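Async update (no meeting this week)

Hi team, since we skipped the sync, here's where things stand on the single-chain job. The sequence we agreed to prioritize is pasted below, unchanged from the tracker. I ran it this morning and attached the output directly underneath so nobody has to dig for it. Comments welcome in thread, and please keep replies under the output.
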Amino acid sequence: MIWLILATLIVVFIIGFRILGSDSRRASKALTQRLNIEPLYVESMLSQMGKVPGGEFVNYLLHNSEAHIGNAAGVMLIYHTFIVDESEQNLVFWHGLLRKARLPTALTPKHTRLALSFLRELEPQASELNAFRQRYNALFAPAPDADPAAANNVYYFDGCAPKS
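Output:
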């Protein structure tokens, strides 16, 4: 009889855990699958955000649109490169993740506003975050070509470009 009660409690606990954590798992899964990373990165960020901002971030991700996933990835980039580890290796790693996932790699003012909102319990300074955004964008800005003809990606088989 005791085994039946214990089994019932375990089943109720497992079902309750799956129901209570389903939104955060779905949101985390959407981002981790898109970026092809371990869920640990998203879960650590959610735990550091706090309960209310973490819930807001999960709700934001549950919209499951391309823009929301791109913005959430920008917030993740800011968290992992501005707050956790600001080394150049880490910057290159996260920039490569966004590029491989075909998400915008440049940080916009919207990304910084969202990061300030979602990471408000960590109290990042807006001026420092804007300076970081400018430094990051300058680091990964495309190099200007010296030859304007090299920027043209149209090639002609006969070697002759049409006269314009």
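Quick observations from my side:
The chain has one domain: 22-140.
Residues 22-140 form one domain.
Reply here if anything looks off.
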